[in-house]
Specification:
heterodimer, A: alpha/beta, Rossmann fold, six-stranded mixed beta sheet, 14 strands, about 40% helix, B: mainly alpha, two-stranded antiparallel ribbon, about 5% strand, globular
Chain lengths: ~350, ~350
């Protein structure tokens, strides 16, 4: 009798332990969040900042979240395989962080209706696919004001990646801002047809400096242009992350992509069960775009002007595309007193006045 | 005890086929050492790299999807390599093939006909042939080195793709983004297993492999190609037309690369994009040598090489290992293959 009662109690306790541990496991089962990067996380630009956002998510949620990333995923047939692999290995929230992942993300999302997808910089959405991007042109506005004041040769060199609206919008924002403080400014653009290729980016920067540019701006992801500017003694404006370390003298400031607040809020939404598909285009106001510390060499009044513009953008009194704005031919594209609509910004495919050359077709 | 390499009187036939196996074995061994040094469990890491990717139906499908272009290109290249014709520009031929075939899909958008896919495949093959014909012409006419011309034409091809995708082939509703519209269903490769991306491309690759085997080993021209490669002087004494063989070698390898290109855009990608191939044309060179320039060997080496890519994904996802692991594995594989190939002509003597 005694033995059997012991056995029974043992069995009961064993079952309850099993049951309890099972319950605690399922309760503590962390939300798996996947990230797909187009570059290496050490690019010190685009993918680096997305990875910083991932690390912020880990830090914020601790054991409640487990993150995974796959880096250097080519934007061809491979992207869909990697995204699908993340979706089918229990990742419930997946950030795909390059434009070329748009159609692959949508295809995988159809197969995994319960998984939440977030695609950066795209324009196609679905019930379980959101899109998000930064209003980097707001940062370009501030950078353009500084560049317009700092240039002596009145030539700004621009290392550009691909002639997509995002990049053209940035070039235009710089031209408009710089010419508002210095009407003599011209923008020279070199297209390198890559997001990340330090060699090509450096060559483009050298060419632009040889053509008289004394300010190098970039819409590519490596710090190579900043390094070239440092070596050649001209100014540079960093892209995506604070690139001061690569050109302490040359680096005026940088436009920082700050994905952490968005990634944290979307992760929270999945944890709370309140995630909804949508389109987020965040700027200074939501903190998705930040300015890096200003170089000490920038005169106080220029810093004050830059800060005034930044604060104006936050409170809505300043817009980077405020009319009258003329295109290269002199035709008014945004009338006086009006600002560009988001739709116009999203599909921008013309240069404004001050930009030299033609958009490659 | 001293190890010494001693030349063999006759190249070892056994070693020709054993050396890839030794290379794979040594790669695994060195990989385990590497994982141990990185502080991860070597067996678990190897499992994540080589077994986990193909443990599901989806995984196997992806393996075959990835292997199809590699096998196709490598078969074409190995025919050329056997004749000592060094086509390094398969990447460019692939790109032009994808453009020829893919453009057809865009021109005949929404045309419902079963003939569209075969027409696209033919157009792609033709495109690759055209691109490979340029080095062939330059070599037979001006005695230009085909290694240089074919390689340089790769960059020309990529620029043509870039031009077309930023201009005429761009999706009219795509906000100026550089990609074509998605192909219509009738221009997509038929899927073999529902719910996966496995399409008929792998069957085409296997068909081409069998055809290539018959061509090289059972046909007179295949025999001539091999003789030209092994003993050029003997070939000219025998009166083989060397120029014709150079043309053949380049055009065949260009054709298979072009076919691989159109299969990629009509298969897993489904549209023309600025980056069609993540370097298949170059990786296929490793595949060809790993497969001993033999069509059947190429099938196995293509599968193995595809597995290293899939393994790289899963090593990153399940083990948090860096992406560089993929490159390290591919590099080691080639390194150990070249090293073990010494044993074909030498033997190790211990005294």
């Amino acid at each position: 009798m005694k033995l059997s009662s012991i056995l029974t109690s043992l069995a009961i306790s064993a079952v309850s332990v099993l049951f309890l541990s099972a319950a605690t496991i399922s309760q503590a089962d962390p939300l798996k969040v996947g990230f797909v990067y187009v570059g290496p996380i050490g690019d010190h630009g685009w993918s680096y900042e997305h990875n910083e956002g991932r690390l912020a998510v880990e830090k914020k949620f601790g054991g409640k979240v487990k993150t995974t990333y796959v880096e250097k995923v080519p934007e061809g047939a491979d992207a869909q395989r990697v995204i699908n692999k993340l979706a089918s290995t229990g990742h419930n929230l997946i950030f795909t962080t390059s434009f070329g992942y748009m159609n692959p993300t949508l295809k995988v999302a159809k197969k995994h209706p319960k998984v939440h997808f977030e695609h950066a910089t795209g324009f196609k959405r679905d019930k379980n696919v959101s899109t998000y991007s930064g209003r980097f042109y707001e940062g370009r506005h501030v950078a353009g004001l500084i560049a317009g004041k700092m240039t002596k040769s009145n030539v700004i060199g621009y290392v550009a990646s691909f002639p997509i609206p995002e990049v053209i919008r940035g070039i235009n924002a710089v031209s408009i801002a710089a010419r508002s403080v210095n009407p003599e400014v011209k923008i020279k653009v070199v297209w390198v047809s890559t997001w990340f290729d330090p060699g090509k980016e450096a060559d483009a920067a050298k060419t632009l400096i040889d053509q008289g540019a004394d300010i190098i701006m970039q819409h590519t992801d490596s710090p190579a242009p900043v390094q070239v500017a440092e070596k050649r003694g001209v100014w540079a404006l960093g892209q995506a992350s604070d690139m001061t370390a690569f050109g302490p003298k040359a680096h005026l400031t940088a436009i920082i992509d700050n994905w952490a607040p968005y990634y944290i809020s979307r992760t929270q939404a999945v944890l709370d069960g309140t995630w909804k598909s949508g389109d987020t285009w965040g700027g200074f106001k939501s903190g998705m775009v930040l300015m890096a510390p200003y170089n000490k060499a920038i005169p106080k009044e220029v810093v004050a002007m830059a800060e005034k513009a930044r604060i104006g953008i936050i409170d809505g009194s300043v817009h980077a595309f405020t009319g009258p704005i003329k295109d290269q031919s002199g035709k008014i594209v945004i009338p006086a007193g009006k600002v560009a609509s988001d739709g116009m910004l999203a599909g921008m495919n013309f240069y404004v006045q001050g930009v030299e050359g033609k958009i490659p077709q | 005890m001293v190890f010494k390499l001693e030349p063999r009187a006759v190249s070892s036939r056994v070693m020709i086929y054993q050396s890839p196996i030794i290379a794979v074995f040594l790669t695994l061994l060195a990989g385990m050492v590497m994982f141990r040094l990185m502080g991860t469990d070597p067996l678990q890491a190897l499992e994540a790299f080589f077994i986990e990717p193909i443990s599901t139906m989806d995984g196997i499908a992806e393996l075959l999807v990835k292997a199809a272009p590699l096998i196709l290109i490598a078969i074409g290249l190995s025919i050329g390599f056997q004749a000592n014709v060094w086509n390094i520009g398969a990447e460019g031929q692939l790109t032009i093939g994808a453009l020829f075939g893919g453009s057809l899909a865009l021109v005949f958008y929404e045309l419902e006909t079963p003939f569209l896919i075969p027409a696209m495949l033919l157009a792609g093959t033709f495109g690759g042939m055209v691109w490979a014909a340029i080095p062939a012409l330059l070599k037979t006419r001006f005695n230009t080195n085909e290694i240089l011309t074919s390689l340089m034409l790769t960059y020309v091809a990529l620029l043509i793709l870039s031009y077309l995708i930023h201009g005429p082939l761009r999706d009219p509703d795509g906000f100026n983004f550089p990609e074509s519209r998605l192909f219509h269903n009738s221009a997509l490769m038929p899927v073999l297993v529902e719910g996966t991306r496995l399409h008929i491309g792998i069957l085409i690759a296997l068909g081409v492999a069998i055809f290539a085997w018959l061509f090289i080993f059972k046909h007179m021209i295949g025999f001539q190609i091999r003789v030209v490669g092994l003993a050029p002087a003997a070939a000219s004494f025998a009166g083989f037309k060397q120029k014709k063989l150079i043309w053949l070698a380049l055009v065949i390898s260009g054709g298979t690369a072009g076919l691989a290109g159109v299969i990629e855009v009509a298969g897993p990608i489904g549209q023309i994009v600025p980056v069609i191939s993540p370097g298949y044309g170059f990786t296929a060179i490793i595949v060809a040598f790993l497969g001993r320039l033999h069509p059947i060997g190429v099938i196995f080496s293509g599968l193995l090489m595809a597995l290293t890519y899939l393994g790289g994904d899963s090593a990153q996802i399940t083990m948090n290992l860096p992406n560089a692991v993929t490159g390290v594995f591919q590099g080691m594989l080639l390194f150990f293959l070249l090293a073990s190939d010494v044993l074909i002509r030498y033997r190790i003597k211990i005294r």
